[in-house]
Every structure is written in C-alpha cells, then in structure tokens.
TrEMBL record:
Keywords: Hydrolase, Membrane, Protease, Transmembrane, Transmembrane helix. Residues 45-208 form the Band domain. GO terms for molecular function: peptidase activity. SUPFAM superfamilies: Band 7/SPFH domain. The keyword Transmembrane helix applies. The chain crosses the membrane at residues 26-48. InterPro entries: Band_7, Band_7/SPFH_dom_sf, Prohibitin. GO terms for cellular component: membrane. It is a single-pass membrane protein. The keyword Translocase does not apply. It comes from the Bacteria. It is found in: Membrane. This is Membrane protease subunit, stomatin/prohibitin.
Amino acid sequence: MNEETHVLQPKKIGGRIKKYLKEQKPYFVILLFIIASLFVFYFEMMFISIKPGEQGVLWRRFGGGTVVEKTYDEGLHIIWPFDKMYIYSIRKQKISDTIRVLTVNGLTIEIEYAVIYFPNYSLLPMLHQRVGPDYPSTIIFPEVRSVIRTVIGQNRPEDIYTAQKLIQARISALSKTRLESRFIDLDYVPIERISLPVKISDAIESKLAQQQLSEEYEFRLDVAGKEAERKKVEAVGISSYNTIIEKSIDQKILDWQGIVATRELATSNNAKVVVIGAGEKGLPLILGQ
C-alpha cells in the first residue's frame, strides 16, 4: 500500500499542476501579451542606435542627471527605459538667416548670411547641460546677429558694398571667438547677399565707375610720362654717342674705310660696273650683278 501511495502521489501532483495551468492559461496569455506590449513600447527607449556623424549624451533619471564624463559613439547602446539618450550631429552644419541692420550713417540694409558650424564634441555634455539641443536658435543666431550689427554699424554703405570680403572675415573672426566660449566651433560666416536701397546702390555704382575712369586716366598719364622720360633718356644717349663718334673719327679714318670697302667690292664675283668717285680723293665703286 505504501509503495502504491508513493507512485500515485507524483501523478496526483503532476495532474494538479496541469489542471492549474489549464485553468490559468488565459491569465498567462494576458501576462505574456502585457510583457510583449511593454517590450515593444519601451524598445526604442532602451535600444538606442547612434548613426555615423552623431554622438549621444545620456541623462539618468536616478543617477545624477546628465553624464558629463563621456559621450556615446555611433553604434547600438542599451539603457534603462527611464533614462534618455540625446543624440547630436557632430558634422558641419549650415543654417541661414536674413536680418536688417543699420550702417554708421543710419541707413537700413538687408543682409542674408549663413553660419557653418559644428558642436565641440569633447564638450558636448556641457553644451547639452547648459544650453540644450536647440542651441542653434538659443546661442548661434543671437551671437552672430549681434556681431553683424556691430560690424555693419561701424561702416558706411559704400564700404560695405566694396569690401564685403574684409567685412565677412571680421564677422567670422568675432563670431568664432564668441561661440567657442559657448562650446560651439565655427567654420565661417559667409555673407550671401547685401541689399541696399536702389538709389544708394545706383549712386555707389556710379561713384565706382567714375573712380575707375579717373584711375584709368591717371594710369594713361603715368604711362605717357614714363614714355616721355624714356625717349628723353634715349635722345640723351644718342646725342652723347654722336658726340663721342665725332670726336674719334677724322678724314684719314674715313678714307681708309673707303679703301677697305672698295677692295671688298672688287673681289666680289658680281662686280661689273665701275663708278668713279667725285673729288680728288673720290674712291671708285665697283657695282654690278
């Protein structure tokens, strides 16, 4: 009897378990459905994919907030669902804007510019903690606008119109200094368009045209003066040369040169005609084909 009891007891336990599982099966299905739903819901919060050209900054709800000691490189990262990963692009980025500013004499002009920038990735946690993901509108635009107003406000319209590269370089240098202290690296600030009032623009262009004509006239005068100076020097040289020749040549040398020339002509195979020179010492010339 005891052996039969020991054999039947495991069977009874197994049967009870099966019966219990069968009775609780709907609840298990509901539980699995809830777990699967939670997994799907929190999947994107837990499995963070950081793409090329990006870096992540982790914020821990129960671990001191923003992690400033490190950034998270590209790849897959798993975090707790109650934490949050902020992803920043560390590639060069371009934003554009248009503002109206006053020149030194109170004239309003419109400037269209762009900003080429990228966050300092080594200080990215500090940027996130102190400024946040909207740093272009919070930091970049206000700082660059302030620099543009300052630089343009120190120049006249004609200076802005004719020296855009110098003004652009100054704006870029000042903006770079300001943004570096705010954890942002600036490449440069290109000025894409400067719009002056039509009358002012026409006046400046007319003034520039007159300046070009004046410079051209001055250039021609300079060339003419230099040419006159050259001819003067040349004439002095020729005069000096003739004076020296006159002093060094006498009648005997001329007679001798005539004899040499006559001898050379006489030995020529084509000498046919003899022309007698004039005067007592006229030398004969032998000519022909």
